[in-house]
Specification:
About 45% of the residues lie in helices and about 15% in strands. It is of the alpha+beta class. Among the domains are: about 180 residues, no CATH class; about 70 residues, PGBD-like superfamily/PGBD (Muramoyl-pentapeptide Carboxypeptidase, domain 1), CATH 1.10.101.10; about 200 residues, L,D-transpeptidase catalytic domain-like, CATH 2.40.440.10. Helix 2 runs parallel beside helix 8.
């Protein structure tokens, strides 16, 4: 600690002055006669005796240090096991024995200070306690300094006292150390002075030692919580939601995994920083969050005046148009002041619509006003939530090449080396109430699920095997209207050897899977596929499927993946298979990583924030404290009330 070192420098100068002989001076003639000497002789301790006292104090301090760690492990119920796993050989890791915070400790404090940039609430990190522990270290060393400086009239004794304090704090010890500090040159006066002040010096040193260990423990606890937040907590997941009480126990529940990360690490701060998601969007969203908060600090934007016109478009003018221009300008869109709805304003409106998943037609309608009136604070919260969703996502650390489907944006992005190389519109599962008679489940059962699994094959001219639910609820209705419905739409009935019947739709232009299906094993049986109803891709919001992901230009995507996989199948051969309409399965040599996630904020190529549609209400459930969501529940057969 700098104060402590300055103290030693001061004592060294004083000691040098103390070494100069003082000239003899005759007593003043008027000076009164000296008092009679105290008949009780003062005992002068030896340096060895003083060293023995210091050694005893050092042993007591070491035992107190061990007890502090042991007590912390026992009393800190939520993270006691994790503390045991990461406990270093030396009780201090982030501080030195002189109370100085090392490079690793300073880097850790920097990480903790930047929690807000990740959208993380620092409340769970007990930062006030950490702050208090750090201040106690400074105060303890100030007290030790004061105890040592009480010997300033005998500077050489003060230097020995400082060495004794360092010994008690866990530094190098022994009579030789005290001798090197000047103890072998102390006269009787110095030894007596040192002996008188030694108890206060040793007590202050022990306090400084324990304060340093306590501060280190607080840093370890913060480090454990950091790993939990970035690796194990899921406070925003609609299904795997972890309550605050559970989050506090996650360090112990994952103690072994955390121990492998932190124990023996050259720098703990580096290990913590390595826990950030590596998805390319993550750092971009951090920047977007900082920009959003800066704009919010500057006042943000105001809601549009009420009542709003049903429709406003180019060519119109008036005060409401002026307010619209002001609103868009507040968010950074280029719209000079004025009351006219001109080309510049139309361009800004289209840009806003494209970034909020609206039809970019340049017409201001109710949907536009709804999005524009979302307060900037909520937009910042949405970006912070997106960061959280990446931290708890199975696809948080994708490979160099992967496919990423965003349910709120209804987009599929192909990433290669951190950049988007392809973009496809997709149709996701609808949000309707439905029933599944086979499983006897009722609810929002068609929602596209979130998961990360690789695609392993391409199926050309795929057959479509409708589920029993679809056969009973949808195809059955069509058969009542038209008994030849199956034949007209390419369906085939096949009797299996066990006597059961299988119904499927042959490949062809009418097949509901279109020309191609991209599939991989997953428990949800969700895959990417083409569709004959391609006009639906023109809609800005597209929740129309039964859970699978209908993909625009799916055949182009399949050919791109096959060519990248160095598959021997040519485009000509693919066209031949499609013409024959006979299903053909082509395995990828290397599976293609696929991640389907619910992240409703993103950053575009120009570094601007975009906001998707909270199609399933997962974001609202998070903000309302209604997680986890219940999507479906059992129902009694035959009960379709409310559906």
């Amino acid at each position: 600690m700098r104060i402590h070192r300055n103290c030693l420098l001061t004592l060294a100068v004083l000691a040098a002055c103390d070494a100069q002989p003082e000239a003899r001076r005759s007593p003043h003639p008027t000076q009164p006669a000296a008092e009679p000497a105290d008949p009780t002789p003062i005992r002068v301790p030896t340096l060895a005796e003083i060293a023995a006292r210091v050694d005893k104090a050092a042993v007591v301090a070491a035992a107190a240090e061990t007890a502090l760690w042991t007590g912390a492990r026992k009393l800190a119920a939520p993270d006691g096991k994790a503390l045991s796993v990461v406990q270093p050989k030396d009780a201090v890791r982030f501080h030195g024995r002189d109370g100085q915070l090392g490079d690793d400790g300073r880097a850790l404090l920097d990480l903790l200070g930047a929690l807000g940039s990740h959208g993380i609430d620092a409340a769970g990190f007990a930062l006030p306690a950490l702050d208090g522990a750090t201040h106690k270290v400074a105060g303890a060393f100030e007290s030790e300094r004061a105890a040592v400086l009480a010997l300033e009239r005998t500077p050489r004794a003060a230097l020995v006292a400082a060495a004794a304090a360092a010994w008690v704090r866990g530094g190098e010890g022994g009579e030789v150390i005290l001798a090197r500090a000047g103890g072998d040159r102390l006269g009787p006066q110095g030894l007596v002075a040192l002996d008188r002040h030694l108890a206060s010096v040793l007590a202050a040193a022990q306090t400084a030692r324990l304060a340093t260990v306590a501060a280190d423990l607080a840093l370890w606890r913060a480090a454990l919580r950091y790993v939990v937040e970035f690796r194990f907590a899921a406070p925003a997941h609609p299904h795997r939601y972890t309550t605050p009480a559970v989050v506090r126990r996650l360090a112990d529940q994952n103690a072994d995994a955390i121990g492998k990360l932190l124990k023996g690490a050259a720098r703990v701060a580096d290990v913590l920083a390595a826990q950030w998601p590596t998805h390319p969007q993550y750092p971009l969203l951090r920047t977007a969050l900082a920009q959003c908060r800066e704009r919010a600090t500057g006042g943000g934007w105001q809601v549009l005046p009420k009542p709003a016109p049903k429709v406003a478009k180019k060519g119109e003018a008036g005060p409401w148009i002026a307010a619209l221009r002001e609103r868009l300008a507040a968010e950074g869109y280029t719209t000079p002041p004025g009351e006219a709805f001109d080309d510049d304003l139309e361009s800004a409106v289209k840009d806003f619509q494209a970034r909020h998943q609206l039809e970019p037609d340049g017409v201001v309608a109710k949907s536009f006003v709804t999005e524009a009136d979302v307060p900037i604070e909520r937009r910042c919260d949405q970006i912070a939530l997106a960061l959280q969703r990446y931290r708890e996502s199975e696809g948080r650390d994708p490979e160099d090449f992967f496919l990423f489907v965003s349910i709120p944006f209804q987009k599929l992005w192909v990433y290669e080396n951190g950049a988007i190389v392809r973009e496809h519109r997709v149709i996701v599962g609808n949000n309707d109430l439905d029933i599944d008679q086979l499983t006897q489940m009722k609810g929002k059962i068609n929602r596209t699920k979130m998961f990360s699994k690789p695609l392993t094959r391409v199926i050309l001219a795929p057959r479509w095997y409708p589920t029993q639910r679809v056969i009973e609820l949808e195809i059955g209705k069509e058969l009542i209207k038209d008994p030849l419905y199956l034949e007209k739409h390419g369906y085939v009935r096949e009797m299996q050897s066990d006597g059961t019947e299988v119904v499927y739709q042959k490949g062809g232009k009418d097949n509901l899977l279109g020309e191609v299906k991209l599939q991989g094993p997953n428990k949800h049986n969700i895959y990417l596929h083409d569709t004959p109803f391609r006009e639906l891709f023109k809609k800005p919001r597209r929740p129309f499927s039964h859970g699978c992901v209908r993909t625009q230009d799916a055949l182009d995507l399949a050919m791109y993946l096959l060519e990248r996989d160095d598959n021997a199948m040519s485009r000509k051969e693919v066209k031949g298979v499609l013409k024959e309409a006979e299903e053909k399965i082509v395995q990828f040599k290397k599976p293609v990583p696929l991640h389907i996630e619910y992240v409703s904020a993103a950053v575009d190529a120009q570094g601007r924030a975009m906001f998707g549609w909270d199609v399933y209400g997962y974001d609202q459930a998070f903000f309302d404290g209604q997680l986890p969501v219940e999507e479906a529940k059992e129902y009694k057969a035959g009960s379709v009330k409310g559906l």
